[in-house]
Amino acid sequence: MSWIALSLIVWAAAFALNVFLVRHGGRSAAYVVPVIFGLTILFIWEGMVRGLNISPVLLPPPSAIGAALASKTHILWTDLVQTFFKGALTGYVMGCGSAIMVALLIDRSPFLQRGLLPVGNFIAALPIVGLAPIMVMWFGFDWQSKAAVVVAMVFFPMLVNTVQGLQATDAMQRDLMRTYAASYGQTLRYLRLPAAMPFIFNGLKISTTLALIGAIVAEFFGSPIKGMGFRISTEVGRLALDMVWAEITVAALLGSAFYGLMALLEKRATFWHPSQRK
What we know:
Elements (H helix, E strand, L loop, with lengths): L1 H23 L4 H23 L10 H10 L1 H35 L2 H15 L3 H12 L3 H24 L4 H9 L4 H35 L9 H10 L3 H29 L9
């Protein structure tokens, strides 16, 4: 019970400290308060697991997860390279890049807009657990099949966002470009693509999480003896839940960093947009 009592005391102290920092901490409180809150959650997690004698098979304490992170860095790095750099990132670049190119083609064809977008919405709704085994059969057990799953997951959200962005300009703006005798390419470059950038970055940000999820889930259906999905499925079978949580932690940090990078690029590229102004 001492761990539980200590957890409650730490929670009360951290809560009071956060309230004080919010009221008197100035601008630094925006960074310090989330850190204190996160550390408090980890301490309460540790205290409750130890105080209630919860089996590590059900929920390992954060200290055990941290030990797994520190002692098995080489395994985590190998899995990260296989899942993120080879599977997720390759599929992300291929899927998002091809979606933008197809969106530019669709933009010039009302027939494709009416025909392809409903099909795209249908394919985007297909369950990944049904799609992944098919891709593994088509492209093999290595990273190529995972990249194919990622392409299928990110292509249509990216396509829909880009097409909507290209239609974001109003009639008066397009008429103004016509009075300048601007060609289609000039209108696209100087008016429509800049107007579409917030929509394109929305698609890119959504696709960051989809890409990582798709690569990890695809590894459940066939993979060489490395990769985050492979490691999670095998370590669950061995009841090594600390390693499973370590892989989940790495995936969460990686996904957050990838999303944050896209958000930073969006801020730099669309600094003129009202949504980026303070």
